[in-house]
Amino acid sequence: MNWLSRLIPNSIRVQGDGKKSIPEGLWDKCDECGAVLYRAELERNQQVCPKCDFHMRIPARSRLDGFLDQQPREEIAVGLEPVDVLKFKDSKRYKERIARASKASGEEDALIVMRGAVEGVDLVVAVFNFAYMGGSMGSVVGEKFHRAAQRSLEERIPLVCFSASGGARMQEGLLSLMQMAKVSAAIARLGDQGIPFISVLTHPTTGGVSASLAMLGDINLAEPKALIGFAGPRVIAQTVGESLPEGFQRSEFLLEHGAIDQIVDRREMRHRVATLLALLTRQQAPEASIEPELITSDETSETD
Amino acid sequence: MAMHFLDFEQPIAEMEARIEELRLQVSEQGVNISDEVDKLNKKCVSLTESIFSKLTPAQISQMARHPERPYTLDYIEKIFTDFQELHGDRAFADDAAIVGGLARLDGRPVMIIGHQKGRTTQEKVARNFGMPKPEGYRKAKRLMEQAERFNLPLITFIDTPGAYPGIDAEERGQSAAIAENLYLLAGLKVPVICVVIGEGGSGGALAIAVGDHVAMLQYGTYSVISPEGCAAILWGSNDKADLAAQAMAITAPRLLELGLVDHQLEEPLGGAHRNPAQIAADIKTHLITVLGELEQLPLDDLLERRAERLAGYGVFNDAAV
């Protein structure tokens, strides 16, 4: 039993057989091991399965909530809306897709940017919202990222980005491809000024986002088992005409091949990022401050 | 060598064959029918003009991939002197899908980088159909850095279906290789001039296409994903590529409108391969002109202009404006 499973109360250490029916609303099932999990606990655990440590998808705002200090928090680069310049239509109009995604998510587009701090280290953080059209990068995402980097430059504070994206947004045609150049240029400006950029790759990060901002961190981190690559596995399998090796394009594969610096558990991300940024910006080592709910669980487990 | 004709060029092919037949008769029988040949030639020109005046985006996409279209090395030979090809990424291999090296443009030393497709089957395979692997982008990166070190303007030729989607490419960091070039080009301290000569396929194209001036040949294409790839994802079928080509705005006139390319270079009637000497001469004139303009700018202005250009990409509604 690892430190984490020790920290979870017995009540939610459930054996999963994948066959139990799950009452609506209260319970969730782990995507990986099938364990039935109490939803409130799972949320407290940042959508990481307490049974097998599998990292499930976490909504962008929940991620920000679990990552940032309570204060300061200021959402920036707001008030931007996508435009259907090409009048693009496949099975649906892009306009409809925008309307639907905005309504379903309550977000402007697939990136949320905040000025905040982590364990007292000031930073700007951008988080991809995969629920919004697969986290695809179009003009709004590019502009929000650009503004995030601008704010970092102005205040001379680090930039952190959590990516989760299928790549460039096809419905914006070449405009979306050009966002790769735009965000890379923004990162290059930070580099010129000696302002750190940490990229955290989460499941999944592919295509134009992987081939631009996500791989340009001074430090590249990844969550465990995230799918990360330039081409998607289906395209590669078609091209090479053979099945792909086990674990291909997962975080562990990327670490082994030298593409990323570390694989970091989501629950340790705050402290790890704060520690790295403090080192890069020559600040004092931050003190680990675990999220209030988790402290409670920790204390409980210690008295067991 | 017999010309290769695309399906929509068949009427032109037939008429040219008839003209050729007549010519042969003339030389064999000594009959004077040159008036007839002239007339047919004129008809053939107007037929070609008519067909090429209304090409669909899907047809232009075929033109961009025309098997006889001039490739980067063809242009290098016709436009530059003293070309010295430089090989290898100094780490893993020499990727033949990207070529590059030193040369002179109108006497002026420059650095050239371009995608390179193969002409024969053997060469196509050797050049991986113009789809670079990470070592190709890293060779390009090495040459970009060298251009900056020796203050040589960089000229790039874009012509790729895309970066290679393969297991080895992923293992060696295809994403990072492309991303690092985007980063480097954003601040490269020399003028960078790009010409899309054929297919501008996605990130694999962009990795050598970020610069101070981007021109496109009339029958080139530039897109975020191939029409076939887009059709497969959004329509669930490859044969909707025509629709995807139309929807994505991949042709020079549309991209000029959108402000994503700066200039369109008209091609000879029937496409660049019908008169490679002429299109090469036009590209040369274009390069000399643009380089002349960019060289007027002090370095700081050049870089500021490029930064504004890159930051300006995108169309969105801003509530604050």
N-to-C series of helices and strands of chain A: HEEHHEEHEEHEHEHEEHHEHH
Broad shape of chain A: globular
Distance, first to last CA of chain B:
60 Å
- Largest contact between chains: A-B, 63 and 57 residues
> Which quaternary structure do these chains form?
heterodimer
Poorly predicted runs of chain A are 10-19, 292-304
Unreliable residue runs of chain B = none
Q: Helical stretch count of chain B?
A: 14
Mean pLDDT of chain B: 95
- Beta content of chain B comes to 15-25%
Q: Tell me the fraction of residues in β-strands of chain A, as a range.
A: 15-25%
Cα Rg of chain B: 21 Å
Broad structural category of chain A: alpha/beta
- What structural class is derived from the secondary structure elements of chain B? alpha/beta
Q: Largest sheet of chain A, described in full?
A: 8 strands, mixed
Compute the separation of the termini of chain A in Å. Answer: 14 Å
Write the layout of secondary structure elements.
The complex is a heterodimer of chains A (304) and B (321).
Chain A lengths: L2 H5 L19 E3 L6 E3 H6 L15 H8 L5 E4 L3 E3 L11 H12 L5 E8 L2 E8 L10 H17 L3 E7 L8 H19 L4 E10 H4 L8 E4 L5 E2 L3 H8 L10 H6 L5 E2 L5 H12 L11 H12 L1
Parallel strand pairs in A: 6-7, 7-8, 8-9, 8-10, 9-11
Antiparallel strand pairs in A: 1-2, 3-5, 5-6
Helix pairs in contact in A: 5-6
Chain B lengths: L9 H20 L4 H20 L3 H8 L7 H8 L1 E5 L12 E8 L2 E8 L5 H6 L7 H16 L4 E7 L6 H5 L2 H14 L4 E10 H5 L6 E5 L3 E3 L3 H9 L5 H8 L3 H6 L5 E3 L10 H21 L2 H13 L4 E3 L3
Parallel strand pairs in B: 3-4, 4-5, 5-6, 5-7, 6-8
Antiparallel strand pairs in B: 1-2, 2-3
